[in-house]
Amino acid sequence: MQSRNHTPIKNIVLGMTVSFCVLLSSCTAFKKVTRKEAHVSAYEQICPIKGKVISGFGYRDNRNHTGSDIKLQNGDTVKAAFCGRVTMASSYSGYGNLVILKHANNIITYYAHLSKCLVEVGDSVVAGDFVGLGGRTGRASTDHLHFEVRYNNIPRNPEDFFDFVSGTVRIPFLAYSPAKESKK
To answer: Taking residues 144-157, what's their average pLDDT?
Structure first.
C-alpha cells in the first residue's frame, strides 16, 4: 500500500480549492432569474442600485444603522452585488421583504424593503442578477433600498465598497481585508 504524503497544509488548500470550485460552478449555472449576460465572472462586483444615499451607515437616533439607505422608485430592479447563494427571501420584521445573499470571503449582503423578492432560498446568483424590486415594506418611510454588507457577520459600511451616486465599485470584495483591531 502506498503512503499518502499529505501534510495538514496540503489538506487545507485542497479543501479550499474544492470549496472554491463548487462556488464557481454554482455562480455560472443557468437559472430562472433574469440576467443581463449568460456568463459572468465569479469575481464580478456590481453596484446593486444607482441612487442618492438618504441615510448612511453608523449611529443615528441612539441606535446603530447597519447599512445604507439608497433612494429608488417603487418597482426599480435591485441587483446582486456579488456572486453568491440566496439564504433568505421573505418578509422579516422591520426589514420588510428581505433578500440575504451569502458570498465568498465571509461576506453577506442584505437587500431590504423590497416590494417583491425575485429569488428563492437556495438560488445561485451572479453579480448583476435581479434579486428584487424596490419598495417600501417593513419599517420604511419612503421607497428605498436598505443595503448591508457584513464581513464575518459584522456590519461594514457599504459606501466603502460602492459609490451609489455614480453606481461604481470602490473596493473589490476579494481584496477586502479590514484593519486588525489593536488589543490593549
So the answer is: 94
